[in-house]
Design brief:
disordered N terminus; binds iron/sulfur cluster; binds S-adenosyl-L-homocysteine; two-stranded antiparallel ribbon; 401 residues; alpha/beta
């Protein structure tokens, strides 16, 4: 198990790869700086931003608002767009697609596309409601009218939650802001989705702990909101309870909604499944969350992975109720029956047990929703993200359906 000290060392050790002359991922100011040698007027930088983030072009050659001669000179100096590319796709029977996307150094990250949603809480971007019409009211020509993209923030993870497959990788490295936002760009391109027209929700719930890669994560959020046009109200970030990260998050003027991976009703149980509890216990986390200024009608989500026989009994539900009443801020609970992974020693509770747990919370006034797993057959569900080999028979390379 990871101790607090070891955890901090791995955070400091997690390296960023060199950015090289990659343009995707840079802010207006960073682009101006990177291209200083060309003495470009500011409108040329704005044209480039539009091409990179609104049109999501694959190469400098496609920046048609620039004269050819400028495109050629910038490319000749070694600059490139550097949009991450999808190396491999696994498609589930439920329409979910899991992508392996190349990072800047050729390592792969995982990104999941979930069309439609699963009929959860319609107030929550991580739970799109299929009964809602799309904003334009148009029929969905591609078989979906809204979708959620599950985005990774690190390759691997240092937090070592005992029930999570990503934990098995350890922390390999942090992703850059461009690699985080680039996952969304690559998936939108594949699906021919447009944030202004289609209802796209983002959940930062893929591989890694976003609050242990805070600057790159927030840099990506700023690109996604400011440049790519996805409202922050349609984004949710999930943390295992990294208190300094939550405190920094509380100060951010533009920020996604917040989800906390609670996963146990008291510190003793939580320590056994989430060793990070020894560094920051449940009360520490709740005190930090209290500092986050919530918007009108905003609730903090508490995710609760139900582990058979470990945290799924009635008394655990009652403890969760007490805990959330004590918290005194608007909260809701998303229940997730544990998704199995090879050699992970837990069991999935039965549907009736999950329903009973939910009812126990609801009877005591706590909003509780059951998140049905998406793409379980392709290891795309929560906590199942871990790079798999190329030999998987469900790998597809064709166009999305
Ligand atoms: N690292 C962040 C975000 C990614 S994990 C975090 O832990 O919050 C996203 C969610 O998946 C978390 O709530 C986590 O508790 C849950 N999860 C992890 N492994 C799971 C599994 N095997 N089955 C179901 N949910 C799991
Ligand atoms: Fe990391 Fe989240 Fe998995 Fe825990 S549940 S190991 S924090 S990815």
């Amino acid at each position: 198990m990871t101790t607090g000290g070891k955890l901090l060392t791995s955070i400091l050790d997690a390296p960023h790869p060199p950015e090289g002359r990659r343009l995707f991922g840079l802010s207006n100011q960073q682009l101006a700086e990177a291209l200083r040698e060309f003495s470009l007027p500011s409108y040329r930088i704005r044209q480039l931003q539009t091409a990179l983030y609104r049109q999501r072009v694959a190469s400098l050659d496609a920046v048609f608002t620039w004269p050819r001669n400028l495109r050629d000179r910038v490319a000749a100096a070694g600059f490139l767009v550097g949009l991450p590319s999808i190396l491999e796709t696994f498609r589930s029977v439920d329409g979910t697609e899991r992508h392996l996307i190349a990072g800047n150094d050729g390592q792969t990250v995982e990104t999941v596309w979930m069309p439609e949603g699963d009929g959860g809480d319609d107030d929550d971007p991580s739970e799109p409601d299929p009964s809602n019409p799309s904003p334009s009211g148009d029929p969905a020509p591609r078989g979906w009218s809204r979708a959620t993209v599950c985005v990774s923030s690190q390759i691997g993870c240092a937090v070592n939650c005992q029930f999570c497959l990503t934990a098995r990788l350890g922390i390999i490295r942090n992703l850059t802001a461009g690699e985080i936002a680039g996952q969304v760009a690559a998936v939108l391109n594949r699906q021919q989705a447009e944030p202004g027209r289609d209802r796209i929700n983002l959940v930062f719930m893929g591989m890694g702990e976003p609050f242990l890669n805070f600057d790159a994560f927030m840099g990506a959020v700023r690109l996604l909101v400011g440049e790519m046009g996805i409202p922050e109200s349609r984004m949710t970030v999930s943390t295992s309870g990294v208190v300094p990260g939550i405190l920094r998050f509380a100060e951010e003027p533009v920020r996604p909604r917040l989800a906390i991976s609670l996963n146990a009703s008291n510190d003793a149980v939580r320590e056994t499944v989430m060793p990070i509890t020894r560094k920051w216990n449940i009360d520490d986390v709740i005190d930090a969350v209290r500092k986050v200024p919530l918007r009108a009608r905003e609730r903090v989500t508490f995710e609760y992975v139900l582990l058979g026989g470990v945290n799924d009994r009635t008394e655990h539900a009652d403890e969760v109720v007490k805990l959330l009443r004590r918290a005194k801020f608007p909260a809701k609970v998303n229940l997730i029956a544990w998704n199995p992974g090879p050699d992970v020693p837990f069991t999935t509770p039965g549907e009736a047990d999950v329903a009973r747990f939910q009812q126990r919370l609801r009877d005591q006034g706590i909003p509780a929703f059951i998140r049905r797993p998406r793409g379980r057959d392709i290891y795309a569900a929560c906590g199942q993200l871990k790079k798999t080999g190329n030999s998987d028979p469900r790998a597809v390379t064709g166009e999305p359906q």
